[in-house]
Amino acid sequence: MTNIKLAISSIFVGFAVLGLKALAYWITGSVALLSDALESTVNVATAFAALVAIHIAAKPADANHPYGHHKAEFFSAVLEGVMIIVAALLIFREAYHGFMQPVMLDAPVAGLLVNMAATVINGLWAWVLITRGRAQKSPALVADGKHLITDVLTSVGVAAGVILAVATGWWILDPALAALVAVNILWSGSKIVKESLSGLMDEAVSAQTLDAIRNVIASQLDGAMQAHDLRTRHAGPAIFIDFHLVVPGETTVFQSHEICDRIENSLKDLLDGAKITIHVEPEHKLKHFGAIIPD
Predict the structure, then answer these.
(1) Number of H helices, E strands in the chain
(2) Which of 264, 215, 205 is nearest to 239 (CA)?
(3) Residue 199 pLDDT more than 70?
């Protein structure tokens, strides 16, 4: 399933889950279940945002965006994190009203069963989004999946609060558990925002990926003296790599080009879709520290 199809499916799943949670609140009158339903409205909104971002990110490079539109997905992920934080604040608001005026719940068992059905759907779809998003290197899909995980945690916490409230008759537990879960999703939202902002700031690839890149370059340096000033950054599914390649003074342009092609092909085998820029330099540009030398 393509990223676009996954994003469209998320919208339909979001509406289905929202409907079930709204029904659970209507059956019980639980402020915690109302809070859970409020968070699901954010799920629908962020699913639309992810769809738009993935559509824009898939566009090829043009005159105004010569490096492509990959970073559009990071904007969507930031928006999702912000929306999660907003949802947490809405839950705090409803929990406050519940503290001020606790009420006995109606038909809690039926409401919980409906709510748990929505939670199972959310959990399964979150797993699909995170798994496929990581495989496709899509920050928007991964962020959407993590958002749904927070929704699952919310639902589990809410269910625990409702069960405890029914078992003990302490109806104040209903808003209390809602407030505790709001704290958890507030932390989750801030984490998603932080990770997405790192992508917007041209964060380098992981140390493990960087080591793999260095090893590939070193293995393909036959005919060259060294590579240095290696830099990387990632933008959504794209990884950008650039470095300087030092060749002997007698090396022809054709030979230099052949070496560059060999290195580029090997890097693209390692990282599908990598964007690579190599600057060829003469031997007096050799560096004695931090250089990559032939194996």
Answers:
(1) 8, 3
(2) 205
(3) no
- If you search the block for the tokens 């797993």, which residue do you land on? 127
Encode pLDDT of 111-151 as tens digits. Answer: 888 988 999 998 999 999 899 888 877 776 787 788 788 77
Tell me which H or E stretch contains 28: helix 3-28
* Confidence bin at 277 (pLDDT 50/70/90): very high
Write out the DSSP string of 145-188.
HHHHHHHHHHHHHHHHHHHHHHHH--TTHHHHHHHHHHHHHHHH
Query: Which strand ranges, in their side-by-side order, compose the sheet holding 238-246?
Result: 226-235, 238-246, 275-281
pLDDT of residue 237: 65
DSSP state of 121: H
Domains and CATH numbers, the chain: 3-200 (1.20.1510.10), 207-285 (3.30.70.1350)
Task: Kindly report the number of other CB atoms within 10 A of residue 281's CB atom.
Answer: 20
Burial 32-51 (b: 16+ CB within 10 A, else e): bbbbbbbbbbbbbbbbebbb
- What is the pTM for the complete model shown? 0.56
Q: Are 245 and 280 in contact (CB under 8 A)?
A: yes
Q: How far apart are CA 191 and CA 45, in angstroms?
A: 19
Residue 1, pLDDT above cutoff 60: no
Task: Determine what percent of the chain is predicted with pLDDT higher than 70.
Answer: 91
For residues 263 and 218, what is the distance between their CA atoms, to the nearest angstrom? 9
Residues 165, 35: contact at Cβ < 8 Å?
no
Distances (CA, A) of 179 to 147, 176, 276: 18, 5, 49
3-state secondary structure of 240: strand
**Whether the Cβ atoms of residue 47 and residue 17 lie closer than 8 Å to each other:** no
53-57 contacts, C-beta under 8 A, 24 or more apart: 53/77, 53/140, 54/3, 54/4, 54/7, 54/138, 54/140, 54/141, 55/4, 55/7, 57/138, 57/140, 57/236, 57/237
